[in-house]
Amino acid sequence: MAVWSVTALLVQHGGHLLVNFLFRGIFRHIEEGNAAAVEILAAATFAIGMLNAASMTY
Asked: How many CB atoms within 10 Å of residue 19?
């Protein structure tokens, strides 16, 4: 169980880094109050989490 938890954590973190790489300065935009940047990050995090959960169930 711990191995799956660590795997899920690494995949989620990798996805977060990928979004940060693809959308340079997204955190600066979030700090400036840009709602679109927040929605992109939230949607990407949700999608990666759903794919992560779906791939670990059978």
From this structure: 17
